[in-house]
Amino acid sequence: MAPNNKNKNQAEGEEIIRVPLPDRREGQLFGVIEQALGAGWMDVRCEDGKVRRCRIPGKLKKKMWMHVGDVVIVQPWSVQSDERGDIVYRYTKTQVDWLLRKGKIKQDFLSGGELLL
C-alpha cells in the first residue's frame, strides 16, 4: 500500500488550522464586542484602543449570532474611520484559544486591556 502523501508539506506533529487574520493592508483590526446596541449595531473595542460603533453586514447577520465578549475582525470605514466600522468575521472559542497560544492576541486584550503584539 502506498503511503498517504496528502500532507507532504506538513511536519510531523504540526497542527493544521485555518484561522483568518486581519488584513493589515486593508486596515482591518482585532476587536472585542463591548455592547450590543440592536438593529445590527455593536460597540467594539479595537486593538488600537478606540471604541467603534460597528454594524453587522446582512450576510453575517443571518449566519451567526454575535455576543458581548466575542472576538471579531473589524474593517474601519473609509469615512469616520475612528468612529465606525463593519464586523467582517467572528472567531469561535477554539479559534480564540489558538490566537492566544500563537501570541496573536493577549489575554489582557480580551479582559479590557491593550493588545500588545
TrEMBL record:
This is Translation initiation factor 1A. InterPro entries: NA-bd_OB-fold, RNA-binding_domain_S1_IF1, TIF_eIF-1A, TIF_eIF-1A_CS. Belongs to the eIF-1A family. PROSITE patterns: IF1A, S1_IF1_TYPE. Residues 17-92 form the S1-like domain. Pfam families: eIF-1a. The lineage of its organism: Archaea, Methanobacteriati, Methanobacteriota, Thermococci, Thermococcales. NCBIfam families: eIF-1A, PRK04012.1-3, PRK04012.1-5, PRK04012.2-2. The keyword Protein biosynthesis applies. One of its GO terms (molecular function) is RNA binding. The keyword Protein biosynthesis applies. Keywords: Initiation factor, Protein biosynthesis. Seems to be required for maximal rate of protein biosynthesis. Enhances ribosome dissociation into subunits and stabilizes the binding of the initiator Met-tRNA(I) to 40 S ribosomal subunits.
